[in-house]
Amino acid sequence: MTTDIRLVVLDMAGTTVADDGLVERAFQAAADALGVEAGSAEHQRMLEHVRLTMGESKITVFRHLFGTEERAQLANAAFEGAYHDLVDGGLCAPLPGAAEAIEGLRSSGRKVVLTTGFSRATQDRILNALGWQDIADLTLCPADAGRGRPYPDMVLAALLRTQTDSVRQIAVAGDTGYDMLTGTRSGASVVAGVLTGAHAEERLRADGATHVLASIADLPGVLGL
User: Which InterPro entries match (predicted)?
Assistant: First the structure.
């Protein structure tokens, strides 16, 4: 049990928000827009990279996959359009216990910040669909902080903007290895992996998880609530 935590930085898709394959479905639209044939060896290679880098800034992923900035921007635009359509179609839901965990953490006096690898437009689309505009103290995307995961920028931006005194007063939680790297690189005392999203326990622990939880609903207990 860890009690001296003042700031809790939570990932969204796969951690507090159900993904249910939406990222992969939206990636298919991006691949189609760039002429990558579904089922081809090239498509499979790209999809595997998307899976391995879940949690990373999506434009960074597309820059790696498609080579030029123009192609990456085209892919990103197609991805965002497809993801927004899925969200608008009602395929976006909170994970069980997520809202209650956030509310409990804030009621206990902790600051809660929601982070994402998506753009601000996509993050806001999700927050609006869930009615979560005011659920957290702050929301951050990679463009708000400098770099996305696996760099520590969003966690450190959260510390600065909430005026938290020390990195040792931070807990970070997410469903990907990149979330764990972000937490460890920021100096957070608690780096909790959850098993409701992209990566399994082995990957989460390899990338620095101090705790592995069945879901975000278990995090308040780890923090002494």
Answer: HAD-like_hydrolase_sf, HAD-like_sf, HAD_sf, PhnX-like
Taking only the tens place, the pLDDT of each residue in 34-65 is 899 888 999 999 999 999 888 888 899 999 99
CA angle at 15 for the pair 10 and 17, rounded to the nearest 5°: 105
Distances (CA, A) of 165 to 59, 95, 159, 219: 32, 30, 8, 21
With tokens 């920028």, the residue in question is 153
Q: What's the predicted TM-score (pTM) here?
A: 0.91
Non-local CB neighbours of 149 within 8 Å, separated by 6+ positions? 55, 56, 57, 117, 142, 176, 178, 179, 181, 182
Residues 153-169: pLDDT tens digits? 999 999 999 999 999 99
Distance CA 215, CA 87 (A): 22
Residue 39, Ramachandran bin (φ over 0: left; ψ between -120 and 50: alpha; else beta): left
Calpha distance 146→217 (Å, rounded): 30
